[in-house]
Hints:
Blueprint: H1 2-26, H2 31-36, E1 40-46, H3 52-65, E2 74-80, H4 85-97, E3 102-105, H5 114-122, E4 126-130, E5 139-143, H6 145-159, E6 164-170, H7 176-190, E7 195-202, H8 207-218, E8 228-231, H9 235-244, E9 256-258, H10 262-266, E10 283-286, H11 290-304, E11 312-315, E12 319-321, E13 327-328, H12 333-338, E14 342-343, H13 366-371
Parallel strand pairs: 1-2, 1-3, 3-4, 4-5, 5-11, 6-7, 6-8, 8-9, 9-10, 13-14
Antiparallel strand pairs: 10-12
Helix pairs in contact: 3-11, 4-5, 6-7, 8-9
Amino acid sequence: MRRSSIGLFARFAFLAILGVAIAWSMAPNRASAKTADGKLLVYYSMSYVGNAWQTEAKNLITAMALLPEYVDRVELRVQAAGANAARQIQQMNAMIQAGADAILAFPISPTALNGVIKNACKKGVTVVVINGVTEPCAYVVKIDGVKLGAYRTKYVVDKMGGKGNIVAITGVPGVSYSEEHHQGVKEEIARNPDVNMLAELVGFWSHSTARLKMRELLATHGWDEIDGIVVQTGCYTVSQMQVEDGWWPDNPIIPCAGESANGNRLQMLPVSSGIEGALGKSGQSIGSGLWAVGYTFRVAMQVLDGEDVDHLIYYTGIEVTEDNVALCETGAAAEFAAGCNTIRPGTVPPDYAIDFWSPQVPEMGFKAALHGVPDDY
C-alpha cells in the first residue's frame, strides 16, 4: 500500500507539473504565442516618458509597423520603464524570455544596459538603440550630441555678436545624448572668451520644467541680463514667456537655439504673416531626430531580412531658421518631402516635435507622430 500511495502521488505530481507546463506554454506574450501566426515579435523599450517627444517616438514606431511591407509580418509590443535603468533591464530580460526577434530601445543610460543587450545578442535577438550604448553588438542610430550642442551654441553666439550671457537648458541627467549635447554647449562657450554661462538649468526635455526653471532664474536675473539661450527643449516656451512678461514687442525675442517644436518654428514667421503665434524672432530649430526613432524599426527589419547594416549609423538634423521656415498646409509626408518644415497652428500642439519626416522614413507625416498611423492608413 505504501508503494502504491507513493506511486499514485508521483503520478498526480507529474500531471500537476505537466499541467503547469502546458499552461505556461499557452500563456499570452510567450514565444509560442509569437510563432503561432508566424509573425516576427518586435519590442520597443521606452525609458523616459515625460514629454511629447517620447509620445511621438512611440507613435512613429507604431506607424512604421503598420506600413504595408511590415503589417502582416510583425507584431509590435511597447513597454515603458521610465527613468529607471534597473526597470528597463528587467523589462528587456523579459522581452528576451518572451521570444523577441528584435528589441528597439531608447536607453536611459549608455552603459547600464550593456549586460542585457549582450545577453540578447547571444540569444539571437537583434537590438537597435537610439542615441547610444557602448555594447558593440547593438545597432546604434544616433546624432552627434557634442557637435549639435556646439553648433546650436555657435548660432546663438553669432547672433549675440560674440559677447554676453547665455542660459543653457539641459535634458535628463545621465542620458548620453543629454550629457553629450551639454558638453558641446560648454566647449563652444569656452571658445568664446567674451561669452559667459549665466545659468545651467536642468530641463528634463520638458517645456513645463523649462518654464519652471526659467521662472526661478528670473527671480534673480531679468530678461535684460540674458543675451542668448541654448536648450535641448524649451525655445518655444522661453520665447512665449518673454511675450507674457512684456519684454516683447518693445525688445526683440532673445535668440534661442533648440528643439523642433512646431510652436518654436511658428514664432520665427514674420508677424505680418498673420499666423497665430508668429513673432518674427531669430531662432534656430534643429531637432535631435524624432524620425530616427521610427528608422530604428526599419534598421531592425533590414537586419532580420539578412541585409548588411552598419552597427553605428550617424545622422544629422534638419536646420530651420527665420530664413528658411516654411509653412505646410496639411502636414502630410509629401509636403515635407517638397520642402515645408512647419505646420499650421491648431493642427498639432505647439510643443510637438515636427522633425518626424526624413528621406529614410518618407512615409511619416504628422498623422504618424500624432496618431501612430501612416498617411495612407
